[in-house]
Amino acid sequence: MVTKWKYLLWLHDWRFVTSTLDKLEPNEANKMLTGGYEPAGEVHFVPAYHEANIDGSLAHLKDMTLARTNEIACHEVAHIVIGKADVFVGQLISELPRSQARRALERNWDEIKEGTVSHLTRALVALEARPVRKRV
How far is CA 125 from CA 35, 64, 106, in A? Predict the structure, then answer.
């Protein structure tokens, strides 16, 4: 399903490596967003080289419906679409001195990024599910 979203989201020139791991550990950045729960999917990417690694959690994926698996695949690929902005904002924040304000900015950016990707995912999955209409 990741490959389908790669092409639907116009990432033809990207190299994707996908893997299924027994378990994904939440990293520090997403522990706040997930409440410490294990994520179902995770993506690491390098926009300058158009390369991405997408991992899925077997613990989650084995019991999911096809529709939910499709949604997770779309969500992880959508992270790649906003990847350049994510890297840029992350670099800007990292230039700030370590402080409570910087940690607050990091948390806010993670919430904004995750909320945006989740919104895009819902819209894209809904659009994909619609029947194709004949153009006039």
Answer: 25, 16, 28
Report the 10 Å Cβ neighbour count for 120.
18
Orientation of helix 100-129 relative to helix 66-81, angle to 10°: 130
Distance CA 26, CA 38 (A): 6
pLDDT of the chain along its 136 residues, tens only? 899 999 999 999 999 999 988 767 655 555 555 555 668 889 999 999 999 999 988 888 888 999 999 999 999 999 999 999 999 999 999 999 999 999 999 999 999 999 999 999 999 999 999 887 776 6
CB count in 10 Å sphere of residue 74: 23
Both structure tokens of 98? 């370590």
Determine the 3-state secondary structure of 130 from DSSP. coil
Three-class SS of 69-94: HHHHHHHHHHHHHCHHHHHHHHHHHH
